[in-house]
Amino acid sequence: MIGGIAAIVAIAALAVWMSLDASTELPPMPPFDVAARRATLAESTAQARDGAFARVSWGAAAGATAVSLGEAAPVEIPVVDGRAVASIGILADAGGKRPYVMVTVSVFAGERRLFGSTLNKRDAAGSTDAVTISLNAEAVRAAGVGAEPMTVRVEGFDAAGRYPGREHEPGPGTFGEARLVIAEP
Questions:
Q1: What CA–CA distance (Å, rounded) separates 41 from 70?
Q2: Predicted pLDDT at 163
Q3: Is residue 143 scored above 80 in pLDDT?
């Protein structure tokens, strides 16, 4: 019986509290400024990308060091404005076609993976015969990578089974690796 009375008192107290709280008006919300929000997001995204370990994009960049996959010796990449930029050519198959729909770019120091990114062919604005990797030299040094070469692995993945009626060889196709050394400025 005491529990029932306590429950009724608690419900009555809650009802009184809610009615008192409902009588106070909240200030109106300011209008949402879409343009200001987009500008803030664009600025924070640009800052995050500049501070990132690496960025990758489709195509060869002007002024980037050209790197061929499978070179035995490491390629030295100079640092300009805090970044080391290399364009890595992607090999075509025997028929001259690039059957991949995605390319992954991974950076390793020995067996330790430092960075990875995936590029989708449908997002390529132009050339798909190369990818450009822009390494943040300070972040590379902070990761403990010194004068030893980093391995950049570029792999392409086929469109096996995506298009009905077309014959595709199943599985991924590996395009190879390149070894890079960031030159001290």
A1: 39
A2: 46
A3: yes
Rounded distance between C-alpha atoms, residue 14 and residue 9, angstroms: 9
The whole-number pLDDT of residue 108 equals 92
The SS3 assignment for 39 reads: helix
| 48-66 pLDDT tens trace | 665 578 888 888 888 888 8
Exposure string over 104-136, b if 16+ CB within 10 A, otherwise e: bbbbbbeeeebbebebebeeeeeebebbbbbbb
Helices (H), the chain: 2-23, 34-51, 137-142
Rounded to two decimals, the pTM is 0.64
Place of tokens 């890079």: 180
Distance from C-alpha of 170 to C-alpha of 161, rounded to nearest angstrom: 7
- DSSP states of 29-98 as a string? PPPP-HHHHHHHHHHHHHHHHHHSSEEEEESPPTTPEEE-TT-SSPEEE-EETTEEEEEEE----TTS--
Phi, psi dihedral angles at 34 (to 5 degrees): -65, -45
